[in-house]
Amino acid sequence: xxxxxxxxxxxxxxxxxxxxxxxxxxxxxxxxxKKAGINRSTAYVLLESLTKKGFVSVSEKxxxxxxxxxxxxxxxxxxxxxxxxxxxxxxxxxxxAPDLKSLYLSSIPKSRVKFFQGAxxxxxxxxxxxTSKETIRAFAExxxxxxxxxxxxxxxxxxxxxxxxxxxxxxPDTPETKxxxxxxxxxxxxxxxxxxxxYGFTPxxxxxxxxxxxxxxxxxxxxxxxxxxxxDAFKKIFELSWQEAKRLDKICRRKK
Length: 256
Known about the structure:
This protein has 2 domains: about 70 residues, Winged helix-like DNA-binding domain superfamily/Winged helix DNA-binding domain (Arc Repressor Mutant, subunit A), CATH 1.10.10.10; about 140 residues, Endonuclease, Chain A. The chain has 11 helices and 10 strands. The radius of gyration is 38 Å and the shape is rod-shaped. It has a 7-stranded mixed sheet with strand order 4-10-9-8-5-6-7, sandwiched between helices. The chain is an alpha+beta fold.
């Protein structure tokens, strides 16, 4: 009997109290507690719980509460009511599922790719860097930049500095680059020179926030990838390169 009651949702002690009350027919708390083998306060709490579910009724005379079981069918009535309640809850959950799914998907970081062509496309990529909320990390070559977009620089540098967006750049050691580094402080830039014969490169890479911007000066296109995962990886690559670039920068600057 106890095992079957537990399968219907009774706790072990609720089943003990219910069976004790069935056998007693009607009783006060102390008698139920004794019959069920539990203390009086626990028996009272369990009887209150069973009363709320409709399995037990209570009457009071001379301030003494007397408990008795309700008709046995009350158990099936209670469970049928719970079944209807959970059926309604399931329907509500099904109705809410699309909205909940939409809300969940909106919280997942999204990746996007933007592709731009021509000189105007290159400018659009640079303009996007002006939205950066952190220091930009860059692999760049000044000569290629200025030749590809004549007249765009150094206005861009000044606008970036006015927005208080600093940049750290690893750049090949060329006359144009060395000349530009003279303006590093005013243009909020920190540059490290690396030997052009070993580390010269034509495209530019800017890493900022959750974005990586690639600018191809020879093929005249730019590509911006928005991905927190990729941006974090490229930032680590840059920091690793920066440590070695510090050593190479000292060698380059000692040259006449």
